Amino acid sequence: MDGDVSLTIRRLNPQEFSVNVPVLVDIYITAMNYDPAIRDARINVWRRNSMNLGFTAVCALLDGRVIGIAYGFRGDQDHWWQHQLRRGLRERGGPSPEEIAILQDYFEVAEVHVMPGHQGRGIGRKMMYALLEGTPAQHAVLSTPEVDEEANNAFGLYRSLGFRDLLRHFRFDGDQREFAVLHADLPLDD
After folding, report:
1. Which of 62, 82, 107, 126 has its CA 20 to 30 A from that of 1?
2. Any idea where the N-acetyltransferase domain is (predicted)?
3. Is the pLDDT reported for residue 2 higher than 90?
4. What average pLDDT does this structure show over 34-57?
């Protein structure tokens, strides 16, 4: 796939992202095997996210068809997600001075998804580099569902990019699944 010149990683401005959100959310639902009943709610959330400070989005196009999406924005102490992280760190006995520094200056990688059949070919990696290139934050933070022995493409990608544990086996309010919350220093190493 690396030599395939038909693969393009393209940055989307907030307006392009918002217009294309239905297609992008469909990729998310398919890649994560979620119930399509969540579609309308996720479209609304993603459109609201595009208004966050520092919003950045990239998509992967193969032969002109969107097969991947990644987006994020500057972390903010007033966002629900950071409140959740602070709760998790307190419950674990923190936050430590290093964790406080991370939460004061980070880019939240909100979503990274590649269509099944195209996963494991370096597309997520290319999107992550494009997404985080030039980000003014000192850290990137993301969450991913826990899996036994980190045995999936997502964990492999994040670990290979230098992401380390911030929280493990964490449950966000309203979700019974366990998540790993990972962080990396920016810029990412090549």
Report:
1. 107
2. 7-189
3. no
4. 97
163, 182 contact by CB (below 8 A): yes
Q: Are 67 and 136 in contact (CB under 8 A)?
A: no
What pLDDT is attached to residue 47? Answer: 98
DSSP H or E segment with residue 100: helix 97-104
Residue 7 identity: L
Model pLDDT for residues 78-104, shown as the tens digit of each residue: 999 999 999 999 999 989 999 999 999
Close Cβ partners of 146 (under 8 Å, ≥ 6 residues apart): 168, 169, 177, 178, 179, 180
Tell how far CA 113 is from the center of its chain: 8
The yes/no answer on whether domain 7-185 falls in CATH 3.40.630.30 is yes
| More confident position, 153 or 108 | 108
User: How many C-beta neighbours within 10 Å does residue 91 have?
Assistant: 10
**Tens of pLDDT, residues 100-117:** 999 999 999 999 999 999
User: For the chain, what are the domain ranges?
Assistant: 7-185
Can you state the angle between helices 14-32 and 39-49, rounded to 10 degrees? 140
Residue linked to tokens 């992202």: 17
